Amino acid sequence: MLPNRIASCGAKRSLHVSTSNKDFMSWFKKKQTAKPSVPIKKTEEVINEVESGARGAEVPLSRLKLTEDFFIGKNASDLDRRERQSRINEIPFNVWRSSEKLNSSDALDNILIESYNSTHSRSQVTGIADEKLALPFTDLAFKFHFSKAIQSATGTLITDYQITRLQTPIAFRDYLLKEVVSGKLAKFKDSEPNAIELAKGNYSSDSIHVVEDVRPHERKKRLSKILSEVEALEREAARQAVEEARQAA
């Protein structure tokens, strides 16, 4: 009877027994690896630290690392230049001025007659000596279309101030002859818009002497000529020095 009771107790005990850890030092190891708990501060203390800036140096600075996944589209440098150039070529720019330069009075007379006949439907002119060209403009609309036509054909812009002053078609001819055909406008520089062009013909007095402006290509031509003459003189001086040295020897 007793052995059966002991066996039954042993069988029941085996259900509640777990494997025991015989390593006593493992308890200290667990204590060391455990993460230290951060003490919880009161809300008033945290607010005071933030306002005083005491925690400013303790806050670590972190930068956001941007990758290609953060952006959409393409960079401007990645676009194909040929594609952009083809798109620009397809844009219908309104080129309303002629690219040919006005260089003669005969060409100006033909342009003036064509501009007058194309913008004035009631009357036509056949020559530059026609008296109709000396008559003032009848209305502003005719003057506007005539001035635009003559600017388009000559390729020269006329300021609004000059258009206001020019009261007849023949006055436009005189203005273009003086400013464009004579070459005066070609001397105008955008870098020096207020420069004064002086010429000997503008002054009849003998006490006034005007030094004519020398164009850049003329300056280069004269400079190259002077340098070539100096080089020739240096070669001649070197040759004479060699000859004198030979004779002295």
UniProtKB/TrEMBL annotation:
Chief localization: mitochondrion
Keyword Ribonucleoprotein: yes
Signal peptide per UniProt: none
Name of the protein in its database record: Large ribosomal subunit protein mL50
Protein's organism: Lachancea quebecensis
Subcellular locations according to the entry: Mitochondrion
A single Gene Ontology CC term: ribonucleoprotein complex
Family label: Belongs to the mitochondrion-specific ribosomal protein mL50 family.
Cross-referenced InterPro entries: ACP-like_sf, Ribosomal_m50
Keywords: Mitochondrion, Ribonucleoprotein, Ribosomal protein
One Pfam entry name: Ribosomal_L50
